[in-house]
Write a structure and sequence with these properties.
- It is a single chain.
- By secondary structure, the protein is of the alpha/beta class.
- Helix content is 46%, strand content 12%.
- The protein has 13 helices and eight strands.
- The chain has helices at residues 9-14, 16-28, 44-48, 56-66, 77-86, 93-100, 106-113, 133-138, 154-159, 183-186, 188-204, 215-227, 237-241; strands spanning 2-5, 32-34, 71-74, 103-105, 126-130, 166-167, 209-212, 233-236.
- The protein has a four-stranded parallel beta sheet, with helices on both faces.
- It is globular.
- The chain starts with a strand and ends in a 5-residue tail after the last helix.
Length: 246
């Protein structure tokens, strides 16, 4: 299968190590991966701000870049969900639909398509997992705590055999961190308060790291942690899973 690596623009600019870890991890799992170099923003910030009608150029560019792949894999539930729900091309809607149905978040792709149940790596630290809203409630990567239904978590399943990793049980495991893209700009005070609340939950469990599948949320939490001079660090799940040797 041919896989197109979809790297969100903020990851490309600010967290290239996450992109590299994603590529290396997929290749270790036997995937044929390519990175379309002309890819840009998927248009999510415009859509979140009420200007979805202005993202047609982003849509067209995305279709042109990823038309030739069997699957498109992204280390961000937020961006993956946006493309899944909003990608259109008035000149070739059939192709846009095919691409929408081919987009997967990284852990979703590994568990659902590659059928990998767990990954054996090494990360000797105490870790808290942040369930980002788009991946958690949009892509259904894990069960929502308010539902009386069997529990599951695709990311936690993959982390289950990482040697030395001690995963803590959070008090409010699927609460929003307050980032929300442009929400953190327009509602800064609320966003920061929500972020601090999430961090307190992790702090109370004595974690060394906060991990998750969206660097946008982790970036928000990391900013608060650094301002508070906290020793807790953030790390994308791809960087932990990539710790195993083929």
């Amino acid at each position: 299968m041919k896989i197109g690596l979809f790297i969100p623009c903020y990851v490309d600019l600010f967290f290239p190590k996450v992109a590299i870890a994603t590529l290396e991890l997929l290749e270790k799992l036997g995937c044929d991966v390519a990175f379309p170099e002309r890819q840009t923003c998927c248009g999510q910030p415009m859509a979140n701000s009420g200007y979805e009608h202005l993202q047609k150029g982003c849509d067209k560019n995305f279709v042109n870049n990823f038309a030739g792949y069997d699957y498109i894999v992204c280390p961000s539930g937020s961006c993956a969900l946006h493309v899944k729900e909003h990608l259109h091309d008035e000149n070739n809607e059939a192709l846009a639909t095919k691409i929408r149905n081919s987009v997967y978040e990284l852990t979703e792709f590994i568990t659902d398509i590659l059928k990998v149940e767990s990954i054996e790596g090494k990360f000797p630290h105490k870790v808290g997992f942040h369930n980002s809203c788009h991946g958690h409630r949009g892509l259904k990567l894990a069960q929502m705590s308010e539902l009386n239904a069997p529990q599951f978590s695709k990311p936690m399943q993959l982390l289950s055999k990482i040697k030395g990793l001690e995963m803590v049980s959070l008090t409010r495991k699927d609460e929003c961190c307050g980032f929300g893209g442009t929400f953190s700009v327009f509602e800064e005070a609320i966003s920061i308060k929500m972020g601090k609340d999430r961090i307190k939950d992790h702090e109370s469990k004595g974690v060394d790291f906060i991990t998750g599948g969206d660097m946008s949320c982790l970036m928000h939490l990391d900013g608060i942690l650094k301002r508070e001079k906290s020793p807790i660090r953030v790390i994308h799940i791809a960087e932990i899973l990539n710790s195993y040797e083929k």
